[in-house]
Write a structure and sequence with these properties.
By secondary structure, the chain is mainly α. Helix 5 runs antiparallel to helix 6 and helix 6 runs antiparallel to helix 10. It is globular. Helices cover about 80% and strands about 0% of the residues.
Length: about 210
């Protein structure tokens, strides 16, 4: 291994060290109360070192979403690549994939949905914003191809597949945000999974031709 490769590997290792520390701090204190100094202390690094890897707290917060989006794409590609499933079965597999994505890291996926509806995106570097945009577009495009297959076979309603994918994603994110907010407000039983199951069932029935 050459010097350049070792430096790149060390840089990535340090970057992951910061991300892991940031996740702990954001989880404990929340985004608004967390500081770069808190994260540096958790990572056992100087605050100045953090700024070598991330422009600001917003960028560090947003970087946590990348792993979720990458995992989402892997699960979606698995669904679309399964040629043994018919369109209805692929919708079932899609909903199972979304549950898996949520279980992959509930805290970060909630943070990601908050990020998408906030001013934080305006504070990101062009490179990070482009990476998030590319991953988001790819995931929605893969979802759309699942719906397109059902449309082509005359199983699903004749609507634009990207619009259907947008609605599906909005349904997923909306239920998660609403149920997580309810849990904070009243502290009662978590109904998120049950509500998502009902939402996906209604969605699935709604896109099928009668």
């Amino acid at each position: 291994m050459g010097i350049r490769e070792r430096k790149e590997r060390e840089r990535e290792r340090r970057r992951q060290q910061i991300i892991v520390a940031a996740k702990r701090v954001f989880s404990d204190k929340g985004f608004s109360k967390a500081t770069m100094e808190d994260i540096a202390k958790e990572a056992e690094l100087s605050p100045g070192t953090l700024y070598l890897y991330f422009k600001n707290k917003d960028e560090l917060y947003a970087s946590l979403s990348l792993r979720i989006l990458q995992y989402l794409i892997i699960r979606l590609e698995h669904v679309i690549g399964n040629k043994e499933l018919n369109p209805e079965q692929k919708i079932e597999a899609l909903t199972e994939a979304m549950f898996d994505v949520y279980e992959f890291d509930p805290l970060i996926i909630i943070n990601m949905f908050h990020l998408q509806s906030s001013e934080t995106l305006k504070n990101l570097s062009d490179d990070l914003l482009a990476e998030i945009e590319t991953l988001s577009r790819k995931s929605l495009g893969t979802m759309a191809s699942i719906f397109q297959e059902g449309i082509d076979q005359g199983v699903f309603i004749q609507q634009h597949p990207v619009a259907i994918a947008d609605i599906f994603w909005a349904l997923f994110s909306g239920v998660i945000l609403w149920e997580s907010s309810k849990k904070i407000l009243d502290g009662k039983k978590d109904y998120l999974k049950d509500t998502l199951k009902v939402a996906f069932e209604i969605f699935s029935r709604g896109i099928q031709k009668r």
